[in-house]
Design a protein that fits this description.
Alpha-Beta Plaits; 8-stranded antiparallel sheet; 5 domains; 14 helices; 6-stranded mixed sheet; Rossmann fold; 34% strand; globular; protein biosynthesis; Elongation Factor Tu (Ef-tu), domain 3; hydrolase; translation elongation factor activity; 34 strands
C-alpha cells in the first residue's frame, strides 16, 4: 500500500479544521450530503466554541492523477491527524506528531506567523518530520500572502517555491497540496515481518468494546480477533475484539499492518490499564517504544460533587475522562467546606475550563470547582493546594514556578504589552522583529499568568497578541496564604497563595466580589480576608428575608397548588447548586470569583 501519514499544525484559528474539511471533500471520504463545517470537531464543546480541543484521525483515499512522465494514476492511503492550536492543548499535538512522518504547517495569510505556529513547527522539526509550508485564507480581501511567505522563509528557512497558497474555504490550491503530500512526505517503514508492536496515541471508552486504543502500528501486523495482546507499560493483557480505521466514523477491517493508523478494541473495562504512550504487543518480550514525555500539570483546581452521594460517580467519570485526555490528572482531596472530592491538574486555564464543561456535558456530573492555583515547592516538597501551606507571614523555603513567555504582537502594541507584563512581575529577555510583528521574550511567575493575564493581554493588544510558554524552574518567593472567612468560618476552598506585596489588595478585592455574589441571609454576615490571625479586609452582608411564595406584598394562594409547587421547585433547583459553610449558603459563582476578580 502507498501510505502517507501526516498532521496539520498551526496557531489557533488559522483554518486547520476547514482545510481538513476540503481534504475530506476532495478525496470523497465524506459525501456532500453528510458534509458539515469543521466535521472533525466532533465534540459538542468544540462546535460551540469554534476551536479544536481533541486530535482527530481520519483515513483518506487519494489517487494521484496521471501526467507527463507518469502514465498511470496511483492510489494512496492518507492518514491525517487534525490537531488543536491553543497552547493548553500542545500535548495533543506532540502525540499526533509522534505517529506521523510529515506535517502541513499552516499560516493564516491575514495574520502571519503566530506563537503556536513557531512552537508546533519547531516541535515537528525536532522529531525529524518533513514540513510542507502552506499559506491559508488567500481568498480573503485583507490577505497578505507576500508577508506570510517572507515570515516562513525568514523563520524556518523555506524556499519560496516550497510554499503553497491555498484557501481551505473555497478549495483553491488544495489539489496541489494533496500532490505535495504524496510526493514529498516519506512513506512509513512497512516492517510487516517483525513481531507486532503499536504505539497508543489516544484512546476512549466504549461500554461494549471496553477501552478502544487509537494506534500507529510500528512493526508487524495486529493479531487476529480474540487473540491476546499485552501492554508493556502497565503489564496488562486483553484481547483483540475488533480492529479498523477512521473515516472519521469507526470502520472495522480484518487487521492493521506496519505503517497504518487505526484502532484496536481491547475489551479491557478498567481505564487505568490502557495508557497513552504505552506499547501494545503480542507478548511481553519485545522492547517498548519510546512513548511520550510525561507532562506535568501547571494549574490545579479542586473538583467536588454538589451531592456527596455522587462521589463514586465522579471518580468513575474522571477515570474514563483521563483516557481521552492524558494531560489531565487527579488525586483524592478532602475539604472542610466541600467534603470529599479531587485535586485535579491541568496544563492551563483553558484546559481546566474545557475539562469542567466536558465532565458536565458528556458525563452529566454536577460539579463545584475551586479557584485555580499553581503548584509550589516548600523545602522541595510539592504544595498543590493552598490549604497545605502553613499560616503566617514568614514562610521560609517557599518556591514558585517561573515560565518563559513568547509573545507575538504587532509593533503598535509593544508599549501596552510591556506595561502589562511588568505589572505581573515579568522580566524582559529580548525582542525579535518579524516584519510588522515582534516576538518579545519574558520570564514571569506562573501564578501571575493564571489569574487574568491572557484576557488582559488580548484586551491591551485589541485581540492581536498571541503567546506560547514553557516551564523554566522554581524560584524563591515571598508569599502568604490569604484565607477567606464567611460568617466567622474559614472556607478552605477559597484560600489562595498570594505574593505578599499584593496580598492586601487581593484580599480587599475578594471580599468586595464575594459581597456581590453571596445571597443575603436572614442574619448579618461578615466576609473577611485574613493572613494568619490578622484580618486584612472586611465587608458586611446585611440581613434579608426572601419568601418565594410572596409576589410583592401578596401571597401566592389562589388557584391550583401547582402554582406554588413550581416556585418551590425552582427554589429547590437553585439550592442544589449551593454549599453550606456553617449556616451560610455559598453559590458556585463565589468559587469562581477569585479567578475573575
Amino acid at each position: 500500500m502507498n501510505i502517507r501519514n501526516f498532521s496539520i499544525i498551526a496557531h489557533i484559528d488559522h483554518g486547520k479544521s476547514t482545510l481538513a474539511d476540503r481534504l475530506l471533500e476532495i478525496t470523497g471520504t465524506v459525501t456532500g450530503d453528510k458534509m458539515k463545517p469543521q466535521l472533525l470537531d466532533s465534540l459538542a464543546l468544540e462546535r460551540e466554541r469554534g476551536i479544536t480541543i481533541k486530535l482527530a484521525p481520519v483515513r483518506l483515499n487519494y489517487t494521484l492523477p496521471p501526467k507527463e512522465g507518469r502514465v498511470n494514476a496511483i492510489p494512496y492511503t492518507l492518514n491525517l491527524i487534525d490537531t488543536p492550536g491553543h497552547v493548553d492543548f500542545s500535548y495533543e499535538v506532540s502525540r499526533a506528531l509522534a505517529a506521523v512522518e510529515g506535517a502541513v504547517l499552516l499560516v493564516d495569510a491575514t495574520q502571519g506567523i503566530q506563537a503556536q505556529t513557531l512552537a508546533h513547527g519547531l516541535a515537528a522539526l525536532e522529531q525529524n518530520l518533513l514540513l510542507i509550508p502552506v499559506v491559508n485564507k488567500i481568498d480573503l480581501p485583507n490577505a497578505d500572502c507576500e508577508n506570510a511567505k517572507k515570515q516562513l522563509i525568514d523563520t524556518f528557512g523555506f524556499s519560496e517555491e516550497e510554499i503553497l497558497l491555498v484557501s481551505g474555504k473555497t478549495g483553491q490550491g488544495v489539489d496541489k497540496l494533496l500532490e505535495a503530500i504524496v510526493t514529498k512526505i516519506p512513506p512509513p517503514k512497512q516492517e510487516k515481518d517483525k513481531p507486532f508492536k503499536a504505539l497508543i496515541f489516544d484512546s476512549f471508552f466504549d461500554s461494549f468494546k471496553g477501552v478502544v486504543a487509537q494506534v500507529r502500528v510500528m512493526e508487524g501486523t495486529t493479531p487476529k480477533n480474540q487473540e491476546p495482546i499485552v501492554f508493556l507499560g502497565t503489564k496488562a493483557s486483553g484481547h483483540v475484539l475488533e480492529t479498523g480505521f477512521f473515516t472519521p466514523q469507526l470502520i472495522a477491517n480484518s487487521g492493521l499492518s506496519a505503517g497504518e493508523i487505526g484502532y484496536i478494541a481491547t475489551g479491557i473495562k478498567e481505564p487505568d490499564l490502557v495508557r497513552v504512550g504505552d506499547t501494545i504487543a503480542a507478548d511481553f518480550f519485545p522492547q517498548p517504544l519510546p512513548g511520550y514525555k510525561e507532562v506535568k500539570p501547571m494549574v490545579f483546581v479542586g473538583l467536588f460533587p454538589i451531592d456527596a452521594d455522587e462521589y463514586f460517580e465522579l471518580k468513575e467519570a474522571l477515570a474514563k475522562f483521563r483516557l481521552t485526555d492524558p494531560a489531565f490528572s487527579y488525586v483524592p482531596e478532602h475539604s472542610q467546606a466541600l467534603g470529599a472530592g479531587f485535586r485535579c491538574g491541568f496544563l492551563g486555564l483553558l484546559h481546566a475550563e474545557v475539562v469542567q464543561e466536558r465532565l458536565s456535558g458528556e458525563f452529566n456530573v454536577d460539579l463545584l470547582a475551586t479557584a485555580p492555583s499553581v503548584g509550589y515547592l516548600l523545602n522541595d516538597s510539592p504544595i498543590t493546594s493552598p490549604s497545605d501551606l502553613a499560616q503566617g507571614e514568614n514562610i521560609k523555603g517557599l518556591k514558585e514556578p517561573w515560565v518563559k513567555l513568547r509573545i507575538f504582537v504587532p509593533q503598535t502594541y509593544i508599549g501596552p504589552v510591556m506595561e502589562l507584563v511588568q505589572d505581573k512581575r515579568g522580566k524582559f529577555l529580548d525582542m525579535q522583529h518579524f516584519g510588522v510583528a515582534v516576538e518579545m521574550s519574558y520570564e514571569m511567575p506562573l501564578s501571575e499568568m493564571v489569574s487574568n493575564f491572557y484576557d488582559r493581554l488580548k484586551s491591551v493588544s485589541s485581540g492581536f497578541a498571541s503567546l506560547d510558554w514553557e516551564l523554566l524552574d522554581y524560584r524563591e518567593v515571598d508569599a502568604v496564604r490569604v484565607d477567606i472567612l464567611v460568617g466567622g468560618e474559614k472556607v478552605d476552598a477559597l484560600s489562595t497563595i498570594v505574593y505578599r506585596p499584593k496580598a492586601e489588595g487581593f484580599g480587599r478585592r475578594m471580599v468586595e466580589k464575594l459581597k456581590e455574589v453571596l445571597p443575603r441571609q436572614n442574619f448579618v454576615i461578615a466576609i473577611q480576608a485574613a493572613i494568619g490571625g490578622t484580618i486584612i479586609a472586611r465587608e458586611t452582608l446585611s440581613a434579608f428575608r426572601k419568601d418565594v411564595l410572596m409576589h410583592g406584598s401578596k401571597v401566592v394562594g389562589g388557584g391550583d397548588y401547582s402554582r406554588k409547587r413550581k416556585l418551590l421547585e425552582k427554589q429547590k433547583k437553585g439550592k442544589k447548586k449551593m454549599k453550606m459553610v456553617g449556616s451560610v449558603e455559598i453559590p458556585q459563582e463565589a468559587f469562581l470569583s477569585i479567578l475573575k476578580s
